[in-house]
Amino acid sequence: MQKTAVIIGAGPAGLTAAYEFVTRTDITPTVLEMSEFMGGLSRTVNYKGNRIDIGGHRFFSKSDRVTHWWLNMLPMQKLDAEKAENAAPDAELVDRVMLLRNRLSRIYFMRRFFKYPIGLSLQTISSLGVFEVFLLALSYLRAVARPIHPEKNLEDFFINRFGRRLYATFFKSYTEKVWGIPCHQISAQWGAQRIKGLSIRRALAHMAKGLHKRRTDVAQKDTETSLIEKFLYPKFGPGQMWDQAALHVKAGGGQILTGWRVDRIEHRDHRRVTAVVATHTETGEQRRFQGDHFFSTMPIKELTAAFDPAPPVEIREVAAGLLYRDFITVGVLCNRLIIRDENGDQGTIRDNWIYIQEPDVLVGRLQIFNNWSPYMVADADTVWVGLEYFCNEGDGLWTRSDADMAELARTELAKLGFVEPSDILDTTVIRMPKAYPAYFGTYQRFGEISRYTDGFENLFLIGRNGMHRYNNQDHSMLAAMTAVDNIVAGVRSRDNLWALSTEAEYHEEKRQPQKRQNLKDLVPLKPEA
């Protein structure tokens, strides 16, 4: 009989798994998505022709497998117009295309711009002062000479790599704004997940390399993710990638059903999932979806609560204590920016996003959507800005009305010196619950949950919320690919899923070393379906 896979969630992990099934196996996937959109957190919101990338998604990966996958969906734009034999699409003429973009992220502190990550540049010395830079260097050398062991929390992690003074100046307040609690209450594993390869030493080495040699390797395999200089980006934002993936899944015989909320996970003896029961969010219809394999990208707190029969009490206790950080983006359309850049130009900043370190505003980060892709903006003569606010679902910020959030964004954008209030044309508000799995609460006991769920022979947890890992979309994709690999190869263990790193080295490259390729040498896979 035809084998089936039921996949909960149409984000990057869920759609990648579905695509892998239809192109590599005879297993038919059914994807259940609660919303009407593809891509989850990686979707693109279209507001009156102005597109919003929720959280900002650079398409950069050290995995050639992932890069191949992306370029198969959206071929890279033509870079050299003089070469007639170049068959790459022209972004001006073709919509199904991946752009190559320059990356610039900076810190805004004391109403000045600082490079991110912070480096020992003339601009930094001028802005902070020679004496302050001397104190920062002294603090860093002290941390090198007497590192904190063991690293018990995120504060220890930062101090060991940057020194206490630099941590307090450029990391502490922003990180606590993001997570809503002090750094010493956050697990050091957050740093290991996101920035384990980044330090003062690495940042200075990267800066020194750039002084005498300009990078030509677009793949940037030897560069920490936080230091990359270029990245790929879909012409109309990240959601375009996942809309395209959904088309391939459907053409290959898979189903994608939107508006279905999974309420119950039926299983037999804590060993095998037999079906999921879902409710349509508009009609109230209930359906039971049986399958041979089950993939979940839904938050683990909700997954364990849906198990029928219920998990042991200690598993329910850990799951109930898992925490998340939620997210609000306010899109602000402006006639112009008035901020003056370090080069003296007014209103022409090139940043993709800007980390707001200022304590007198609530906004945590700004995006300039024009700089991600010029096609994200309906009118090229306007500037489309996204203000990002971090909060907890149900708190004072989350429960503000859309009108109040829009007014807050307008006020803070003007207060920071980016716009004149009279230049603001329009606003929109978007809320994303459970955007960031948190590394506090009962997270220290997370191993109990992973061991329990690994006991189900046909259940695979993938994706950011599915694995409760603050990872990037390429890591979510690798988890989905690896899970399908396991099914194809008959591998029962989940160890290679949990072993997937989220920064300097990817598991597939540690397991099977291969020649590192430049992006220009990567040939897209033959399109399927």
Helix content: 25-40%
Radius of gyration: 23 Å
CATH-defined superfamily of the largest domain:
FAD/NAD(P)-binding domain
CATH C-level class of the largest domain is Alpha Beta
Low-confidence stretches: 503-529
Main sheet? 7 strands, mixed
Distance between the termini: 23 Å
Binned strand content: 15-25%
The domain tally reads: 3
Mean pLDDT: 87
Query: What class would the helix/strand composition place it in?
Result: alpha/beta
Q: What is CATH's topology name of the largest domain?
A: FAD/NAD(P)-binding domain
Q: Given the structure, what is the number of helices?
A: 17
Number of strands: 20
Question: Which shape, going by the Cα principal axes?
Answer: globular
Query: Strand arrangement, largest sheet?
Result: 7-6-16-17-18-15-19
Describe this structure in words.
There is one protein chain. The protein is α/β, with parallel strands linked by helices and 529 residues long. The protein has three domains: 4-39 and 237-320 and 444-521, FAD/NAD(P)-binding domain (3-Layer(bba) Sandwich), CATH 3.50.50; 115-212, no CATH class; 323-438, Alpha-Beta Complex (Polyamine Oxidase, Chain A, domain 2). It is built from 17 helices and 20 strands. It has helices at 12-24, 64-73, 122-128, 130-145, 154-162, 164-179, 189-194, 200-212, 238-251, 300-306, 313-320, 369-372, 402-415, 446-454, 473-489, 495-498, 507-511, and strands spanning 4-8, 28-33, 44-47, 50-53, 98-102, 105-109, 112-115, 230-234, 255-258, 260-268, 272-280, 286-290, 293-296, 307-308, 322-334, 353-356, 365-368, 383-391, 424-441, 459-461. Helix 1 (12-24) packs parallel to helix 9, helix 1 runs parallel beside helix 15 (473-489) and helix 3 packs across helix 4 (130-145). The longest helix is centred in the C-terminal third of the chain and has 17 residues, at 473-489. It is globular, with a radius of gyration of 23 Å. It starts with a strand and ends in an 18-residue tail after the last helix.
